[in-house]
Design a protein that fits this description.
GO terms for molecular function: purine nucleobase transmembrane transporter activity. With 71 residues, this protein is mostly helical. The chain has a domain at 2-47. It is 55% helix and 0% strand. It has 3 helices and no strands.
Length: 71
């Protein structure tokens, strides 16, 4: 029965989150005010996906597969 309680809590959190994101609704967390605009700009920075272009200290796996690494 406890899994049903946890599931209900998670569903409630997701429902409130999804309802509060759109800006034109009456229950939004990001109203069209200067403070709401600042919160929305920060939110966009957090949820924006940035692909990884460079990884420091990476290993070229093709060299390992061809046996070109000197032991």
């Amino acid at each position: 029965m406890m899994y049903r309680v946890r599931g209900a809590i998670l569903i409630g959190i997701f429902l409130v989150s999804i309802i509060s994101w759109p800006r034109p609704t009456a229950v939004t967390y990001f109203p069209h005010t200067p403070a709401g605009d600042a919160l929305f700009d920060y939110f966009k920075k957090v949820v924006t996906f940035h692909p990884i272009k460079k990884i420091g200290g990476s290993i070229n796996i093709s060299l390992i597969l061809r046996g070109e690494i000197i032991s």
